[in-house]
């Protein structure tokens, strides 16, 4: 397959990628294996460190006791990459360095064996570190990570950092934090971090032309709308369910640039995001960080209680906040998640249905998050034997997934199977 992407210098943005011919919505533009990657600490016991699939029980590396694998085949396949890291992990046991330190170490090991590298549109040496854009606090954080990295590598090869030409650990870690991608599973939950050098050329747009998905640790870049020859190809670095100011703050803090995209200059979605009476949605906005901690800790009862009291306060005199309000939507989503985890299917479905209208408004282009939300609702409808509704929702999900995931993706096959099941059950009635 001829590459339809080429590197170019984009005025005002630096390096970028553009199409060198016409691209159609749904086309797979690029598939990439990581230069280096690692499983996130939070799921290191349930995700295979070789193929990145999720399992309840995994085989453990008998030496470092950190790396876990599906089976001996996965373990053998990973050994050439894990071998040096294994000694480092063992030397720090029971401490485990942060994801960025483990990833940086794996990048160093990789750069020491240039023979194994596949050609890229963009080399790691060219990656930007944005060190001079960083504030004091961030630099301090990096220098702590750098001490950790050196301690971590000490056992394996004390002078390893000197062996990689022109790298000091701080700029290496800065490059890693600015350029690594979150590897997510089919439900879009984070399972790892990885560096895909050519893909680091992609610039951000709050309404991008492409999306990135993963199958295991293989990255797939797909067009979500038609792209003209020489048009820049973009992705969104952040979630889109945020008002303009919040998106811009996040982009500045994390990626060090001020977004000038079309959506940011018109801020056209902001009135919808802020709809309703401000005094009524402010408590929802303020509660979100606290609610997200409850979600992370799996404190579902408490989460559901807090969400439901925010969404339907007793007394009735409180001014309404429409479902489309972005903070109300976030709280509804959290309530939806809590109900699923508490197996309260009917209530879950009621919350899920409330999110679908707003999702349609906020995702005018095909987006994986929208498809996943439809899938979750459809599964509940199917389970509760609302078969007509379920097949309708599955079809809506399919219309998005054929573009964002493609027909070969395992999740698309799952969806088609579910739809067939649903239709067969309807026939039996
Ligand atoms: Zn595996
Ligand atoms: Zn090991
Ligand atoms: Zn923007």
TrEMBL record:
Give the organism the record lists. Esox lucius (Northern pike)
- Give one Pfam hit by family name: SET
Keywords for the protein's UniProt record, in alphabetical order: Metal-binding, Methyltransferase, S-adenosyl-L-methionine, Transferase, Zinc, Zinc-finger
Protein name per Swiss-Prot or TrEMBL: [histone H3]-lysine(4) N-trimethyltransferase
Q: Which GO terms of type biological process are on file?
A: methylation
PANTHER family hit by this protein: HISTONE-LYSINE N-METHYLTRANSFERASE SMYD, HISTONE-LYSINE N-METHYLTRANSFERASE SMYD3
Q: What is its EC number?
A: 2.1.1.354
Catalytic reaction annotation: L-lysyl(4)-[histone H3] + 3 S-adenosyl-L-methionine = N(6),N(6),N(6)-trimethyl-L-lysyl(4)-[histone H3] + 3 S-adenosyl-L-homocysteine + 3 H(+)
Report the top EC class in one word: transferase
